[in-house]
Amino acid sequence: MSYILKKKIADSFQGLVEDKGFKRVSITLIMKRAEVRRPTFYDYFKDKYDLLEWVVNDSLEELIDNNIEYLPWEDIIKLTFFDLSANWRFYTKCIREQNEFDMTNAMAEHLSYLTVQLIVKNKFQPDSPEVALIHVMSLGISQLLTHNFLINHPDDYELLTDKAIKALDLTIAKLS
């Protein structure tokens, strides 16, 4: 039941951020919209930044980490970029209005995980140059996405998807 309740709180939070912006969303508003008692929030989250971190990581885990064994990696990238594009208003407001949680790094961590899993299951040591290269490349792709949320005329997510797939494809080919 706790995951379902967390998702209910997260959905309320996402809707409020889209409507009002991150700065104007309070715990009281989140819980009122979720129709759950305010103290329950603190059973799961410290504050709205902790909730934001959970929302982003839960979404990326669902899109990337949980699909590695089931979908071709290109489809995972397409699905992830589509979802980020579909939730553009939420992500844009969170990136613009808060600095406590680094969304770019969170995206990069999940992309790094995907890439490491693709290249060779457990071939590289965690502190190896190859893993460092993968993380830097993942940060670059994540920065491309984050930047696209903030510019006045963003590129279509399909164009960004193609760029990310080409970068990952080259990295996989070079490191495999």
> Uncertain runs with pLDDT below 50, 5 residues or more?
none
Q: Which structural class is indicated by helix and strand composition?
A: mainly alpha
Give the radius of gyration. Answer: 17 Å
> How far apart lie the N and C ends?
42 Å
Shape: globular
Q: What is the overall pLDDT average?
A: 91
Give the structure's gist in a few sentences.
The chain has nine helices and no strands.
Walk me through this protein's architecture.
- This protein is mainly α and 176 residues long.
- Helices cover 75% and strands 0% of the residues.
- The chain has nine helices and no strands.
- It has helices at residues 2-20, 27-34, 38-44, 48-63, 73-86, 88-97, 103-119, 129-150, 157-175.
- Helix 4 (48-63) packs parallel to helix 7.
- It is globular and about 50 Å long.
Please supply descriptive tags for the structure shown above.
globular; 0% strand; single chain; mainly alpha; 176 residues
List the helices and strands and how they pair.
Elements: H1 2-20, H2 27-34, H3 38-44, H4 48-63, H5 73-86, H6 88-97, H7 103-119, H8 129-150, H9 157-175
